[in-house]
């Protein structure tokens, strides 16, 4: 019996290692320009990042395209607008909404400059927002002036091109995300809110609502997959592939609840609530619950004053954007970049430091273990060799001199290294632990967040919270 138990433990350890082999590591960077205390990024595509900046010079918030620099952004706020936001962007355009001075919000489309703005607001509606985009389409929601209900809308570049996605048998609907030929969002049925999928027309509506769910919403789409949440025992991040029955549960174990808000290629992003302190942490998944990575640690490495973080979009390379709340009361736009394979010290580049980390620990454990399999060996050496020269967001292109260096360095591995070299390298990245309970608590008290007193209250709160972004304005501050 004891032997059986031992065997079971060994098998469990083996599988645990297999599950983490090649684990991804992220580096966080802040996109917030100086002078703005409230900056959020909502979308990334083809290296472009969109969101808004708010501060003394833009009190209501200005739609913005961020560049990878802490000072650079393109202000998209058109004349005669009190405030604007980019909800989503593509390689060539941005969509969102704006408030004219003293007016109701209109869905807007830009092509890189404030002057390029196109008002997408369709006739017959009181107000409208655009929430999602693909290269050829824009999606969102409008309040119909006949019955005051919300209706999912699809545009093709102009207000006149609007198509109502609203399925007639439903009370109201809203579209939150789009791929080239699909649109996702939600519909209100007689029994509650259901995640929705369309393919360009009202008649194409597919109800994604999982069996047994109280409420579901889809926020993002690729051509083949959709992400959102399903509320069962708690609010759980989920991934669909076109039908309700295809749902995959992404909820990470050990967290109170989770939501998936964006998708790109094989990646899904959102946030999960940490158990003890009810703080939210940005999350990235790759198709399964087990693949989930808590992105908050990368922020803590940057500044331990960050208490909450939210991921909103991810591109096909796995680069994530969102925002984070700092204990000093500010919101910052954040980009999380996937470190290249072979980057042993997590500084975003594969270079001689990484090569030396592998050399110095070859045959042992610790720094240099690029695939997290517990040993520094030839696999790790090859990971460094094959990615030598790689940087954040760039493919490796080894220079001739680097290749020569590699050849020499690799040859050196044939000699048995002195024991002293196995000592831990000083280049090892310091990774402070999280657990900043004290710095997190004041935030909760300060904003008066109603902590759930029991599970029922929790469900109610979560359901309500999740609904807020539908009607646009509360996206700001979400
Ligand atoms: Ca490195
Ligand atoms: Ca290894």
What would you give as the CATH superfamily of the largest domain? TolB, C-terminal domain
Shape: globular
The average pLDDT is 81
Number of helices: 7
Strands of the widest sheet, in order across it, are 1-28-27-26
Q: What class would the helix/strand composition place it in? A: alpha+beta
Bound molecule kinds, no repeats? calcium ion
Radius of gyration: 24 Å
What's the domain count?
2
Helical amount among residues, as a percent range? 10-25%
CATH fold assignment of the largest domain: Neuraminidase
Low-confidence stretches: 1-22, 395-401, 408-478
The percentage of residues in β strands lies in 35-45%
**What is the terminal-to-terminal distance?**
53 Å
| Biggest pleated-sheet summary | 4 strands, antiparallel
**CATH class term of the largest domain:** Mainly Beta
Q: Quickly give the CATH architecture of the largest domain.
A: 6 Propeller
Number of strands: 28
What descriptive keywords fit this protein?
single chain, 478 residues, alpha+beta, Neuraminidase, Type 1 dockerin domain, 4-stranded antiparallel β-sheet, 7 helices, 28 strands, disordered C terminus, binds calcium ion
């Amino acid at each position: 019996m004891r032997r059986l138990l031992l065997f079971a433990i060994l098998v469990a350890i083996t599988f645990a290692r297999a599950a983490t082999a090649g684990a991804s590591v992220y580096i966080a960077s802040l996109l917030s320009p100086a002078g703005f205390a409230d900056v959020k990024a909502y979308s990334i595509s083809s290296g472009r990042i969109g969101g808004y900046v708010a501060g003394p010079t833009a009190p209501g918030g200005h739609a913005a395209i961020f560049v990878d620099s802490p000072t650079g952004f393109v202000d998209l706020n058109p004349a005669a607008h009190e405030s604007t936001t980019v909800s989503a962007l593509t390689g060539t355009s941005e969509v969102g909404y704006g408030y004219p001075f003293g007016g109701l919000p209109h869905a807007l489309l830009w092509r890189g400059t404030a002057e390029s703005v196109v008002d997408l607001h369709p006739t017959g509606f009181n107000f409208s927002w655009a929430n999602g985009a693909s290269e050829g389409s824009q999606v969102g929601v409008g309040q119909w002036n006949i019955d005051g209900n919300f209706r999912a809308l699809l545009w093709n570049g102009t207000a006149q091109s609007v198509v109502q996605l609203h399925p007639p048998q439903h009370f109201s609907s809203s579209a939150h995300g789009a791929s080239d030929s699909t649109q996702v969002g939600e519909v209100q049925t007689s029994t509650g809110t259901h995640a929705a999928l369309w393919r360009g027309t009202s008649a194409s509506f597919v109800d994604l609502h999982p069996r047994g769910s109280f409420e579901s919403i889809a926020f993002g789409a690729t051509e083949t997959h959709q992400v959102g949440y399903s509320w069962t025992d708690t609010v759980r991040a989920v991934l669909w592939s076109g039908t309700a029955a295809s749902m995959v549960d992404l909820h990470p174990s050990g967290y109170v609840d989770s939501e998936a808000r964006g998708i790109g290629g094989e990646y899904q992003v959102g946030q999960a609530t940490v158990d003890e302190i009810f703080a939210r942490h940005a999350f990235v998944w790759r198709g399964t619950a087990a693949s989930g990575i808590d992105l908050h640690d990368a922020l803590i490495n940057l500044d331990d004053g960050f208490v909450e973080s939210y991921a909103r979009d991810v591109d096909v390379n796995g680069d994530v954007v969102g925002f984070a709340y700092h204990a000093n009361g500010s919101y910052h736009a954040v980009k999380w970049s996937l470190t290249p394979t072979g980057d042993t010290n997590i500084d975003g580049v594969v270079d001689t430091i990484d090569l030396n980390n592998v050399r110095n620990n070859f045959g042992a454990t610790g720094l240099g273990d690029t695939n997290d399999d517990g040993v520094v060996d030839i696999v790790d050496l090859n990971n460094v060799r094959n990615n030598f020269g790689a940087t954040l967001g760039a493919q490796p292109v080894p220079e001739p001199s680097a290749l020569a260096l590699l050849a020499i360095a690799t040859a050196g591995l044939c000699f048995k290294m002195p024991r002293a070299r196995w000592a831990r390298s000083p280049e090892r990245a310091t990774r402070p632990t999280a657990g900043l309970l004290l710095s997190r608590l004041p935030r909760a008290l300060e904003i008066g967040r109603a902590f759930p007193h029991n599970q029922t209250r929790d469900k109610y709160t979560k359901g309500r919270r999740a609904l807020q972004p539908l009607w646009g304005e509360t996206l700001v501050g979400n």
